[in-house]
Hints:
Blueprint: E1 11-18, H1 24-32, E2 41-46, H2 53-58, E3 64-68, H3 79-92, E4 96-100, H4 108-114, E5 123-125, E6 129-133, H5 140-143, H6 146-154, E7 157-161, H7 168-178, E8 187-190, H8 210-223, E9 231-238, E10 241-247, E11 251-259, H9 266-277, E12 282-290, E13 296-302, E14 306-311, E15 316-324, H10 329-340
Helix pairs in contact: 9-10
Amino acid sequence: MSKSHDRYQGIKVTLITGFLGAGKTTMIQHLLSHVPDGEHWAVLINEFGDVGIDGALIEGKGIKVKQVPGGCLCCTTSAAFGTGLNELITIANPDRIIIEPTGIGHPDQIVKQLNASHYHGVLEVGASICLLDARNLSDPRYLGHPAFFDQINMADVLIASKQDTYDEFEEVRFIEFAKQFEPAKAVIGFSSDGIVDLDWLNVEPIRQSCKIDHHDHHDHHDHHDHHDQVESFTSQPKQGVTVFHKRDSELSSLGWVMEDRYVFALDALVDMLSNLQSQPGFWRAKGVINTADGHSVQVNVSAVEQSIVTAEVLKESRFECLFDTGQNAQNFMSVINNALF
């Protein structure tokens, strides 16, 4: 049924969650390169920081992308979420909207908002997909983080991304881990290089019981008393360079946006990424950086991996680092500034 301009109905919605560094952006890039003929999709993205790297990587493919300002989008009472979603519905009127919340979000609140009465008939909320890096199942920092389990708990489809990096023990451990959840997941699977079966987007969501909903809702507020304490700072240490610093009670981010006249040596970047991985409290870094040889690279770093791949050259270089708020931000600032400048 074709949509008229004044009617928005039957828009499929897919929520793609996953803790910091799980591979959400790579998977979304794969999905957007396999949109079925005759359909057009849109993407709603939230990142904790203010630099907007994921949107920069996805835009330019004929896909309407809306970035919600940085912060914890799990509290979807924020006007920004509703405004961004409504804008995608009315301007893009897509066949499907993919929503990528921040990697530390508690997504049960997003699902509640998507199922609100004013979206009935407009949105068809499908299965939520959660990605995890199975290597992190041995890391107490991940296992002890409430958001890590909140995302896994409410997922209909649970995918271990980056399968090509796992040994047999890690694969078996993931399957045993994934099978313990009640109700059972609709799909338990593996993915490499962001490649997923498009049929996973169309499986029926599993129904959570009211008891679990209430418990999750209670936990959500227990863990999120920090929303009124989010602080943001912006500075311009050099002409054409803007640094963003965001902090709440759990997580801090430092982000750089640099005009295209700034280019960087690849070996210095590699050293910087290794140095960041060794810093206490480090969680995640990513960016798109123009290099001295006239190319651009996409960098991705977590506690267990470091990746540098060729990317499209962008007008600006962007880089962002996430770490525990208890750590000294100046340490991270120095490591990055010394390498970049």
